[in-house]
Amino acid sequence: MMSPVKPEDDAVRDPDALMRNFERLGYIADRSLATSIFLITKLRKPLLIEGHAGLGKTEVAKVLASMLGTELIRLQCYEGLDTSSSVYEWNYQKQLLAIKIQEGVAQTVEEKERYIFSREFLLERPLLKSILAQEASPVLLIDEIDRADEAFEAFLLELLSDFQISIPEMGTIQARHIPYVILTSNRTRELSDALKRRCLYHWIDYPTFEKEMRIVRTRLPDIEEELSKQSVRFVQAVRKLDLEKPPGVAETLDCVQAVALLGKHRLSADVIEETMGCLAKSMEDGARVRAAGIDQLLSQATG
Amino acid sequence: MRQEHAEQLAASIVDFCRFLRTHGLPAGMRQTMTALEAAKTIDVQNRHLFASTLQTTLCSTMEEWEQFPPLFQTFWAESQPRPRSASGEYKGPARGESPEQKEGASLFLDGPGNQTGSAQGNTKAVYGASAQERLKKVDFSHLPCEDLALLEEISLRLLRRMSQRLSRRLTISHRTTRIDLRRSIRRNLTRGGEPFVLAYKGKKPRKNKLVILLDISGSMNFYSLFLVRFAYALQARFQRVHTFLFSTHVVEVSDLLRTRYLPEALRKLSQRAAGWSGGTRIGESLRQFNQAYGRKLLSRDTIFIILSDGWDTGEPELLAAQLRKTNARVQKVLWLNPLLGLKGYEPLTRGMAAALPYVDVFAPAHNLESLLALERHL
After folding, report:
1. Best mutation site among A13, A32, A202 for testing chain B: the one with the most B CBs within 10 Å?
2. What average pLDDT does the segment B46-70 reach?
3. Do B181 and A150 touch (CB under 8 A)?
4. Sign of the CA dihedral with B129 first, then B134, B136, and B140 last
5. Is residue A11 one of the residues assigned to a domain?
6. Does A94 map to a domain?
7. Of A40, A297, B232, B363, which one is least surrounded by beta carbons within 10 A?
8. Euclidean distance between the first and final Cα of chain B, in Å?
9. Searching chain B, which residue's CA lies closest to the CA of residue A105?
């Protein structure tokens, strides 16, 4: 190691230190989340974070990467995700050209083949990239794993236990630095037991009023205290309604920002009507908020 | 001294995992090991930290996450002595043993023949090709006794043919002409890389999973006999079929239907459903199903079929909520309702009305023709 002090050791000395470092980077984590993240770095096990949308699941990985000063490698999952877009793919166009160029060269077929299937022609996709990292362990974020199909989940299981990938043409590649793995899920489907058993788990719930205020204060330091207080209370009241997509913290931040941008200093029924799109993300949800009575919700927030 | 302490702590954690297991959390071997390992990296004197550590290592779903804190409190309470013996208080789902009704028992043996004596005069049995056409359209509940055997035979044949057609159609329609460059280059290397022979790739034919819930309550008596044949026939096409019977409870019968000799299976089926009360609680049955099998069986490639007339004596809200849950997990929900074949039927029963928003295909299932028409939804 070149540098005398390894920065990561200091940052993750214990959960409290980690919590402070996260806060310094603008992420308010409670002690329980800090413990889970602390254990990723100690046990080197993947962490599965579940919770509703907009509560900063993805953000955890980003902040962890910047705290450790390593690369963040992100894999966004979707239905039909396959190995050629998640692990690796050969650069066919380049291979075809190379074959043409090689035509006159006196080489055996084996030599040519070895050349065509060398690293130069390999397109690294996120999972392979995380295995190949040279300097330090990267943070690998596997986002919305519940959207990928079961076949991919099974593949992932293999990767997460061995941290190696085999490419038929090249052989097996072993990770030099085991990545810190964070998986997120919105619980649209249940993950396999095998995968869950292999991971640490954390459930992110909606924040308490105090915590949400701290988040708003940290993320939007220029907003008036009274306005943020009203907005947070209002959003917390809206969350209690039976909405299809209850607003997360991201929505609170949007809402506060929108109100401030409109040049308003306090919440009112008109302002809420104008910024409804920040909180209710479908027509039905908008109607539900209105049906519950904006004035009534507002009186809870300002009273 | 320190060593002793560590051992004691490890023993307590293992004990705690056992305690969790008696309260329905999995806390398996692997998770216990992780917890032990994790405990070494933290300051166990810090109670809050210790709790979070065990929570993150021993839980793996939201439900477990929320169950955890009180369990932790109970076990690690300082004042109380630790519960030594893990006394299993878990009660299995109470089996309703209401002996007063035995409708289910005779269901599949007797079939509709018993109840339809009055309809006998309506139609006279005519055999041959025209009989097949006629019987295809006959409502199962209006079936004259003497036609029963014939209809059974026809239905099995036609349904089987349908399921064969389904399996053929899938392989053909999925043939695509996307060039597989990887294989093409590989194959042509010996020819200096000139792409002589192209390799193609197509989508793997997706094999859907089928989950069937069959209502065998009193009101469905006429139809159950044929619908169970329908489920049986579909097995030829779908390798993964899971069939359940329900009225007030739900019970899996997939294993019984996986046989070549149907009459024997039907006899056993009746035994398994014996002693059930005749009422229908669809919502409750669905809740039981979701709880016990939902996680295991429902996935994106699942087609979920409910065969029921929607006469529900339970709470419609429960039905709606449970069906929504199911719907979110599967590809498609089919509700086959025999009553839909009746002229002028409107799905106005409370249960049916509550369920409709979460049903993708709502189709009749009162005669053979309507069952055969389901081909295009599968």
Report:
1. A32
2. 91
3. no
4. negative
5. yes
6. no
7. B363
8. 67
9. B192
Residue B377 to chain A, least CA–CA distance (Å):
21
Question: CB atoms < 10 A from the CB of A188, how many?
Answer: 11
Q: Name the residue facing B328 among A45, A99, A188 (closest C-beta).
A: A188
How far off is chain B from A8, nearest CA to CA, in Å? Answer: 16
Give the mean pLDDT per block of 10 residues along chain A (303 residues): 46 87 91 94 93 90 94 91 89 87 82 88 93 92 89 87 87 91 86 87 93 92 91 92 86 92 89 89 85 85 71
Q: Across the interface, which of A39, A99, A149 has its CB nearest the CB of B38?
A: A39
Please tell me the distance in Å from B72's CA to the nearest CA on chain A: 14
Task: Enter the ipTM.
Answer: 0.80
Closest partner residue to A109 (CB to CB) among B52, B190, B195 is B190
Task: Look at residue A117 and tell me if it is in a domain.
Answer: no
Do the Cβ atoms of A36 and B52 come closer than 8 Å?
yes
Domain boundaries, chain B: 2-76, 103-173+207-377, 176-206
Backbone conformation region of residue A39, classed left if phi is above 0, alpha if psi is from -120 to 50, else beta: alpha
Among all chains, which residue has been given the structure tokens 């995968």? Answer: A195
Res B169: pLDDT:
45
Looking at the DSSP bridge assignments, the partners of residue A165 are A173
Give the three-state DSSP class for B362: strand
Q: Radius of gyration over alpha carbons of chain B, in Å?
A: 28
Calpha distance B58→B71 (Å, rounded): 12
Which strand (E) or helix (H) includes residue B245?
A: strand B241-246
Cβ–Cβ gap A36/B189 under 8 Å: no
At the topology level of CATH, where does B103-173+207-377 sit? Rossmann fold (3.40.50)
User: Which long-range contacts does B7-14 make (Cβ < 8 Å, 24+ apart)?
Assistant: B9/B39, B9/B44, B10/B36, B10/B39, B12/B82, B13/B39, B13/B54
- For residue B300, list chain A residues with Cβ-Cβ distance below 8 A: 79, 149-150, 189
3 state DSSP class of A96: helix
Q: Per-residue DSSP letters for B90-155?
A: --PPPP---TT--HHHHHHHHGGGGGGGGGGGT-----SHHHHHHHHHS-GGG--GGGHHHHHHHH
Amino acid found at B64: E
Domain C-terminal end among A189, A204, A219? A204
Nearest Cα residue in chain A from B301: A149
Question: End of a domain among A204, A228, A248?
Answer: A204
Q: A109 and B28: CB-CB below 8 Å? A: no
Closest-CA distance of chain B to residue A7, Å = 19
CB-based contact B366:B308 (threshold 8 Å): no
Q: List the domain range (segments joined by +) for residue A213.
A: 209-302
Please indicate whether, in this complex, the C-beta atoms of B185 and A99 are within 8 angstroms of each other.
yes
* ∠ Cα B47 B49 B53 (to 5°): 115
As a dihedral over the C-alpha atoms of residue B134, residue B137, residue B142, residue B143, rounded to 10 degrees, the angle is: 50
Instruction: Classify each residue of A63-79 as buried b or exposed e, where b means 16 or more C-beta atoms within 10 Å of its C-beta.
Output: bbbbbbebbbbbbebee
